[in-house]
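Bug report (template v2)

What were you trying to do?
Predict the complex of my protein with nicotinamide-adenine-dinucleotide.

What happened?
Run completed; filing so the output is reviewed.

Input:
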Amino acid sequence: MGLIAPQAMRFQNRVAVVTGAGRGIGESYAKALAREGAKVVIAEVDAEQGERVAKEITAEGGESLFVKTDVSSEASTQAMGKAARDVYGGVDLLVNNAAIYGNMEMHSLLTVPVDYYQRFMAVNMNGALLATRAVWESMAERGGGAIVNQSSAAAWMGGGYYGIAKLALHALTHSLARELGPRKIRVNAIAPGPVDTEATRKIVPEGILKAILVGMPLGRVGLTDDIIGACLFLLSDDARWITAQILAVDGGFTMRA
Ligand SMILES: NC(=O)c1ccc[n+]([C@@H]2O[C@H](COP(=O)([O-])OP(=O)(O)OC[C@H]3O[C@@H](n4cnc5c(N)ncnc54)[C@H](O)[C@@H]3O)[C@@H](O)[C@H]2O)c1
């Protein structure tokens, strides 16, 4: 055996769905999964960006399919699950990454227009459940699978409706881990601190970002590359006895005794 390890290919013959993979963190997850051999379904509402990511993966020699998907719609998520089965034969892995984030409206809980609040929750909270419902049977038929829900440190910070939706994802992670464990499907979540994406640059004021970094042990904003490892670990067989966990990937930002 050579001393130099070959490039890890942990996801060969696996099919992965990444929601909201048209840009930012979801795009990084999708490309990283493809690099390790997965066939990747880009389940994204923004057709232009979703197509672009799928094409870039294919151009690099990977396999990828864009399926226009609105995670807040049962019909749309079910159609996405069917497309994944029709084209790739089934689904093994799901990353529930889609959210209203980069173009989020800022309101207080006391004044947020109810229509907006409901739309927000339909995407950021219910979307993960609907996408899971669209693929879990296929995972079960194939002998099991793994799901990662994309939370945020904002879940623990009184982060308004954004934080409420993320904290709800923790409860969803726990309950789905119970319901799907007997089918050999693991469900975990990642709670990143601030990650330098176009969306963060747009909506997090520089002063607030600086204040966050002052108290953070590792003292710098995260890069999308900094969280890929945690996501792929939780999806991989290396994490085969790990389920119902919320993993903070945040430079030590949320430290609690
Ligand atoms: N960037 C950060 O600092 C940070 C930190 C913690 C958690 N997160 C979470 O990570 C995820 C990605 O963050 P990002 O910075 O890449 O955000 P982003 O806004 O750049 O990406 C979100 C993607 O989701 C898509 N999307 C929105 N609504 C959708 C819907 N209804 N159906 C399908 N797709 C939809 C968008 O089109 C977009 O491509 C989000 O869940 C966000 O809440 C981000």
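What did the reviewer find?
The chain has a mean pLDDT of 96. Residues 19-20, 22-26, 44-46, 49, 69-72, 97-102, 123, 127, 150, 152, 192, 194-195, 197-200 surround nicotinamide-adenine-dinucleotide (CB under 6 Å).
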